[in-house]
Structure formats: structure tokens, C-alpha cells
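Box 4.2: Ligand-aware structure prediction
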Amino acid sequence: MKGQPVIAAVSSLLRLLLPHSCVICGLSLAEGHFCGACRSDLPWTGIACERCGKPLAVPLPPGAYCSDCQLRPPPFEKAFAPLLYIFPVDGALKALKFRRQLFYAPAFGKLFLPLLEEIFADVDALLPVPLHPRRHARRGFNQAAELCRPLRRKSGLPVIGNVRRVRFTKPQSGLDALERRRNMKAAFAVRGSLYFRHPLVVDDVITTGETCRQLAGTLLAAGAERVSVLAVARAVPA
Ligand SMILES: [Zn+2]
Ligand SMILES: [Zn+2]
């Protein structure tokens, strides 16, 4: 019995020394958010369209874009998501968004850090996709802003604060492509002037890309020269 307080003290000391644990399997870690095994098992995006980030089975010739981009070129210049929106990423991002499991935000947000230099070196501002004020109030936080936090800290890039979601849109999940397009129409507005030439839109998931298309269109109409898009995960086309 005498040993119990000692064990408790050692265990809290260990927790102090090793405050991190893998967000997927719970293994204690000296640092970071994923253990080696879970990190390598994450569904990393392999071959993807350079324009819209859509995962592809085979690489395209240099300079070529996927059939979606050819049929309906997106207003943004480049979009990329490092992960596929499948297990365990889908569950983790839903838990972040709908069950306030905020510890997932720095874990997945830090995956953005190397990409800023590798893919998006010339952006001059960050824009987490804004939520409608009513949804923001209900949820208490904006998951895109939480995911963007490590990038914001590391890069020192300004975060655009005068873009608003002006229409209370239905959640995009459960809508087909045409409904998604209608649902997002005129969803965003820039209040006042936009002082940035190349904003990087940051989101949790790109599904059909309709939200990013609408937001990029709004930014271009407000004077941006180019818009790029970075999300944690990209839905796998059916
Ligand atoms: Zn793990
Ligand atoms: Zn594409």
C-alpha cells in the first residue's frame, strides 16, 4: 500500500516528462502527435492533380490537369491536401469538428508546415475558410482556424480578417455536386478592401471543392491575383 503514492507520483512525473501521446493509438511520446507507426500508416495522398489536388490512379503528363479541371477549370491556381479523407483521418476530423476534440487540430495542422515551402512558397496571407457567425457561435470555434494556427505561428503570415460567410448554407455533406454548387453560391463576401495578392485558403476537407471555388472566386473579384488552397484531407472520388 505504501508504494501506491510513489507509483502515482512517478506516473504524474512521467506524464509531465512525456506529455504527448499519439492522437491515433494513444501511445506515449516524447514529442509530436503521431507515433512512427501511425504516422506512416496515415493515408498520404499519392499521385494527385496539381491544380485541384484530386487523387489520381496514374500520373498526368507534365502541365496537364485532371478531367474535372479541364471540364470546369477552378478559379484557384493550386490545391493540395496531404491526406486522403478515409480512415482514420475522416473520423478524426469529424471528432474535431462535431465533438470538440480539439487536440486533433495541432496534430493535423502541423502537417501543413513543410508544404508552405514546398508548394505554396509565394502566398502572402492565410484565410481559414470562414464559418457563418451563427454556425461559429453554435460550434464555439472554427476548425479551419484551429488547423491553421501552427502555420500562422510558424510563417508569421497575416490572417485575412475581413472575409465573411454571408449566407447560412446547409452543410455540404449529403448534397450532390449540383446542389453543392447552388448551396455555396454567393456564400462569401469581402468587407472593405483586400490587401493581399495571393491568399492561401485553409480548410479541413476538400470534398468537391465547391466551397473553395466560391471563396476563391470572391477573393479574385475583390482584387486577389491568385488564390491557392490547402486542406488536411481530400475526399477520394467515387
Ligand atoms: Zn500511434
Ligand atoms: Zn484537377
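In the box above, the bound molecule is zinc ion. The longest strand covers residues 199-206.
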